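ok so I'm stuck.
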Amino acid sequence: MANYLVTGVAGFIGSMVAKRLLDTGHCVKGIDNLSTGFIETVPNGVDFVEAGVHEPKVIKRLEGEKFDAILHIAGQSGGEMSYEDPVYDLQSNTQSTLLLLDLAKKINCKRVIYAGTVSVYGELDNPELIDESAPTFPKSFYGVGKLASENYLRIYADQFDLETVSLRLFNIYGPGQNLKNFKQGIASIYLAQALQNKHIHIKGSPERYRDMVYIDDVVDAFITALTFSLSGYHFYNICTGKKTKVGELVNLIQNALPYEVTTEYSGSTPGDVFGYTGNPQKMIKETGWEPKVDIDKGIMQMVDWAINK
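replied:
not stuck anymore, here's the structure
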């Protein structure tokens, strides 16, 4: 039995990771400021603290704790929202990472797992099957802050002998995603619109594409990052290597619902990229993790959950 700190524990990914850890017999202390998460989402059994991990006084209170690893999943998670409040975006994503790394050093917690993002790559000349050797040139404030966090992970690993991992998450979806947030999560935004209005407004072309990763596969990636043997700093794409066009995603949602849903394509999103898919082979080869749920099955399960929740 181990003791883990999970930040963002009231959010989509954080709550699912915490539940998996609890289900396998571990102890979890969870932190979330409930800015986008919900208290009812925090799994039973979590030692919960309502606070922001970008606040130094909050981190100071954790200096007497003992953690086997820190899983930093909290933060503002969207390019569009980072333009609305770039200072908070920097605090919640980058300052929080620096504070948690310093905490890990002080309490001798050897491993820190970070929820990174595909947004660190920006818009590449060759956006298909992006591997980890691709250049990083973010197009949003969000991507800039997440890339800065990765550099802090690298420096703390190099200079303070920590084991640090950034999981560069592509587009996550699945049951449990926040259907009230219309600025985060491409699948959840479209599904929420369909449920509320029987109409989906899509900003941009139906030919845009994403690499969609199911939530269970993402949780598997975090658990794998906790348990595989490593030293130093590592970063991995968490993706499927498969292209899903926006128009195809919308059609899957429409077809899974028991009523007709209309669509409209207009407008654009600041800092958005036309398309990307990732190459997951580094994570697969070095850790044994691999994505298992395809988009057809995943959307069906997500829609079924949303209708019946």
